[in-house]
Amino acid sequence: MFDSLLLPMVGTLIIFGLLGYLGWLLWQLRAQQRRHTVVREQLAASNQEQHEHRRKSMEMIALATIHGDCELSEACIRIKHLLDYYPGLAADPAYRVIGEMYGEISEFATREARAELTPKVRAAQDRARYQIEQRFGNDFMTCMQALHRQMLTLEGSRFDMELAQVARATSSGAAA
Known about the structure:
By secondary structure, the chain is mostly helical.
């Protein structure tokens, strides 16, 4: 008789053990989903903060350039690096002059490398940079005015990480 009760009891214990294990796994899954949601919200907040900082930087650089407080070549380099985060915006024909001008001035020495140049080489680069600024000047200023207006309209906009990743993947695929 004891043998006939032992088998159902063992089976019942196994079933309850498996149900307990399943409950623990579900609890772990929900905890992981909550952590994932928190991390995703933090990432979105960080991306939004960076987006606003970049937008404000582009707005200020464009405005400083318009007012003559920033050299065209310096503005071009800074704006180009900021536009790299927004491939869709960078592809806008209104901003093509930034890429064209950047292509010509990107090889010039900056910061520490510039300080290490001889005065003669530095002066030659300055003359070449000045000629490039003269050639692109009017188009670049028109571009800065358009960029400034665009940045003002984007104030308070929401940065969409998925859209940015799709645009970045599309532009990388097109470049390859």
